[in-house]
Automatic annotation (TrEMBL):
Keyword NAD carried by entry: no
Source organism of the structure: Ciona intestinalis (Transparent sea squirt)
Record's keyword terms, sorted: Signal
Gene name, Swiss-Prot/TrEMBL: LOC104266182
Signal peptide span: 1-22
Domain Kazal-like: 20-76
PROSITE patterns assigned: KAZAL_2
The protein, known as: Ovomucoid-like
InterPro entries: Kazal_dom, Kazal_dom_sf
Signal is among the record's keywords: yes
Length: 76
């Protein structure tokens, strides 16, 4: 029974981790026109980081630059 609980907990943690990583990509942003929603994200390339007003703004500016990625939600 104890092993079963560990397996369930591990699966739940894995699913949560995968969802977080999916949220940090631009795959779900299809429009080149962004709203003015203020939901800042921090994007960076290892040497530099910039706060964008929202995920759409980040994706619009950095979609073709694979060296950049969304580091986390919120300001840098």
């Amino acid at each position: 029974m104890k092993k079963y609980c560990y397996v369930i907990i591990s699966v739940c943690l894995l699913v949560m981790l995968l969802q977080v990583n999916a949220d940090l990509t631009c795959s779900d942003v299809t429009s080149r026109h962004c709203t003015r929603d203020r939901r800042p994200v921090c994007g960076g390339n290892g040497a530099k980081s910039i706060t964008y007003s929202n995920k759409c703004e980040y994706c619009r500016e950095r979609r073709d630059d694979k060296s950049w990625k969304i580091l986390h939600d919120g300001e840098c």
